[in-house]
Structure formats: structure tokens, C-alpha cells
């Protein structure tokens, strides 16, 4: 296992300590229980947007805490859900009096724990709503989910929902924007290599030198099929076509095209995938109005990529373009 | 070889095509000869800041083209210098009448070609100066250099020099700021794994499962020594101490601390390294006033990291903090 770590059991805490020190101008970190909050939280009169999930997907979610995106994020252990008390304490810490929205990737553990946190919070007088992200078209039901998995769309949902909250919209409106993003977005991913969870110490699965896994999740869980490695253009088509057919996206749709790296894939390769994804989108007469390329939701050091399409209207475009100031995503300010 | 590519000989061009399409709001790409320029270049009355080098280090250099940083970047083949005609045409394209500064990483090919481009440019009436980056304390002379290699400091130099040019300083002043950054900055890197150049098809070097290379360059060229893998804290000390001793940095110095990923290392691990690097810096009573953590100068999919220290004064801090708007680095605007 080749990793820049000390003891496996200290990875999440030590990484969070470094994160806290590096970004003290934007965020503050609570360690017991662990959550990251906007430095200026709670923001009076603003819906508090809270997400979280297993660690190992950095910069998701902690990297997206800050003005215009998340008010708080709860990091779990690697690839496993944070606990209800993390979510509860994070929610209380960012409650500005306008309610709290939980953005939940659709994994059984996350769902269960966020639900329990919401119940506990309501018992303490918090107003809490939730929105689920389940954009992965690769599989229905999976190793860790009932229904589809939440993957790349999560980043877009956190950005757009956070911008809606920043406009001081009501909890109901903010939740509905997030649900709209989820209903208009679809993703699919693939892996060239596996990844190793530090406290397990060996790769999550074996992937021979000449094979790839199409339809992979973000925890190394199985996808649709295993195939001999093909060209970037062929791989891109294998991801784009199911995504486009699923909603379906139709000629004339305005879309955001997001090519995401899984952690171990060079940025230069993501642009090769983007190039072909754009060409396929144009072939379907989709209007790609916004582009997003980089490693924004990862699986440790896994090599591979995912593609996300999000249908856009004027409101979603305005919210996507709105200023954001977080450790991992920053523009307009 | 597990890569998201089509034909090996098309990697640089196809990646550049995707880059051009994804960031058309910020940059424009010329393909014959290949260079990336600010969309609004030439900027009248501003020194044009031009860099470039082998591809495979993305987002360096093309990702740093835009307001407040580079006016143009010339991508060579993977790990090999761009040609003089690329540098010449890029320089002409961004000449706003205040002269051109070439920022050159200290590799023999880059030096020779930038020198030739400068001669050709002067023959055509351009005013061209140059500044060299050679911050790597690991080795004197190397496989590809006379003298030290240019590594992580390049990113900081491009940011700060670009900001100085944006202030409409003279060519002489802009060049001197870049030289000051070079004289005040030091770096050292290490690798856990090798990387594979597409047209070569096999790893640049072998690194057994239990070994690491300390003092690695950014092309897989040999470093100082090969050792059994140690903890992140021990590795961080092996990089920080030689860096601190070299300038040397002294108690009370104000510094920027930059922990860089080599491409295949998860962001979470970089924060573990940052955490210990900060602790060591504090142990030497350095005042870490700015922090920078991420994969900003890479070696394809190599796992590993580098650490850069840059001594700061009020001017360098103001230039570092100044607005920047490029595909890979953006803040304040």
C-alpha cells in the first residue's frame, strides 16, 4: 500500500487537521464530533445547507464549505457514512433561523443517519428538510444502495443549492432547487484501476492490466460490466450514450457537461474525454452552455472518470455562475 | 498502460482541443504552432508573460493562462521542450508593446529553445527578457539540467509575476520580481510510484512496492536516494529540512507553504503532509502566512508530492493575493 499517511486509523483526523490549518480563512473545523463549517456560520436568515458522507472523495464534501455553497460538511470514515451526531451538531452550528437542508447522496448508511439526525434536530426545534442525489444511471440498486447511487451530480447540486440559499430563498425553495437539479442530472463512471482503503490495506477489487470497469461507483463497488481497455473515445461513448438516453436529454436542451476525474487520472486525460463528450453532445444537438473539468468527486487514488450531464434553465445557470468561495471551488469573488 | 487516451501521438493535441473548448471564455488556442493565449491578448501596455515546457505537468502551464497570471503558454510533447517557433509565435501574439518576459524552468532543452526564440523575436523587433526557475534543492545537475531543476516554485512565480505585470510594471521590474521569487523559493519532491509516458508505454522507472524515491524531479528522473516507504510525517521531514536549510529560511521569516501533489496522490494525503510541514515550519519559527495545497504541477499519474517554501514580503503577499482568473487558478474576481 503506497500512501502518504501515518497510521491508517489517523488518516481522516490528520487530513482534517491539515485542511483546517490550510483554510482557516474560510472554514472552521470541529473535531468531536467532526464537521467543517463556514467560518462565518451561522449566517443569519439564510438556509443552512449541510452535506456529508464517507471520506475518500475529496475535495467532496469539506472542500465545498464556504460562501455560496455548503454551510457545513460531515466527513465519515473512509467510504462510510458519518454518524447522526455529526450531522446533528453540524446542523445546529449553521442554523441561521431559516431552516436546514440536508443534501444526501443515496447510500443506505447516509440516508439512515441523516434521517436520524433530522429527527433528533426536529426534537430540538430545528426545521430540517432533505434532498437526495441519485444520479448514477449505471445500476439500479447496488452494493450500498436501494435505488441509484449519488455520484458526480452531487458537486453541481451543492453549488447550485448553495447559491439559492445565498439568495435568501426559503427552505422550501432551496430544497426544491436541489430536487430539480437531481431530476435534471445524470451520471456514469468508469475505472481503469482500483483503489485501496488505508485500514483495509489492499485494493477494493482486482482489475487486470488490460481491463476496465464500466459503470463503477465511487467506492469501488461493481459497475455494469468489465471489458478490455478501449480508446478514450470509445469509453466516452460508453458513458455518454446511457446518460443521454436516460433522462432523456433531447435536441435543443441546454446542458452543463461535467467530466470528473476519480483521483488518479491526469487532468490532461480528462480533457481528452471532455473533447469527445462535447462532440457526442453536439451530435445529439445538445447545447453545452457550461463546462466543468477536474477531479471534484474522487475515489482515493482510483484512475478513471465519470461524466455528468445537467439540464439547465436560466435560473440554474444564474445559480451555477453565482460567486462561490470555498477551499476547492472559487469564482466571482 | 492504463490511460484515457486514443493514439499516443495524439494525446497532447486532443487534450489541448478539449481544453480549448472547455475554457473558451478565458483562453484561445493556436494549434500550428501550438500555444495557449489569454483570450484578450495582447493587452495594450502590459508586459506579456510567457512560459511553457513539456506537457504532462497539467495544469502547468496552460491552466495558468489568463488575467493576472500568464499571457501565453507553450505546450511541448510529453516531458519535452516546446520548440522555438511556438515560443516566438506565442510571444508575438501577446506583445502589448511593453515587452515580453519568458519564465523558463531550468531544463537544458527549455533554456536552449527559449533563448533561440528570444533571439528570433529580437530580430523581429520584440523586447524580450527572461527569468529562470531552478528551485529544486534535491540535486545539483541532473539528467536534464545543468544546475538545479525548476519545479514547484514555477507555479508561485507565474502567479506573482503575472500579478506584477497586471499592475503595468515595466519589463525590468516584472523580470526582477520573478528573479526575486526564484531566489527566495526552494522545493523538494518525492515519488511513491513511477509514471508512464504514453508514447513510451512503460513506467519511466521501477519502484518496488515497498520503496520510494526521495528528491525526485517532475519527469521521473532520479532523485537523491531510494528508501523503504516511511510514514507521511517522516517523509515530510525528509523534504522540509533540506528545503529550510538551503536558503536558509530563518526564525521570523514570513513564508508561503505549498504542498503539491504529483498527479496520482489524493488530496486528503496532501493535507496530512501539509499538517506536518506546518508543524516543522513552526518548529523553525517560520511564520506561514499563506498556504497552497493541491496538484498544481504534476508528473502524469505519479503518486507523490513536493513541498515548496517561498519567503514573503509585503509586496509578494500583495501580488500573491491579487485577483487571478485562469482555468486552473481563480480568485478575487
Entry summary:
The structure is a homodimer of 333-residue chains. With 333 residues, chain A is α/β, with parallel strands linked by helices.
Describe the protein:
2 copies of one chain form a homodimer. Chain A has 333 residues and is an alpha/beta fold. Chain A folds into 2 domains: 11-182, 3-Layer(aba) Sandwich (Rossmann fold); 185-322, Hypothetical Protein Tm841, Chain: A,domain 3. Chain A has 8 helices and 14 strands. In chain A, the strands form 3 sheets. Chain A has a 6-stranded mixed sheet, with helices on both faces. In chain A, helix 4 (153-166) packs antiparallel against helix 5 (171-184). The longest helix of chain A has 17 residues, at 267-283. Chain A is globular, with a radius of gyration of 19 Å. In chain A, 63% of the residues are buried. The model of chain A has no long low-confidence stretch (mean pLDDT 96). At the A-B interface, helix 1, helix 6, helix 7 and strand 14 of A face helix 1, helix 6, helix 7 and strand 14 of B.
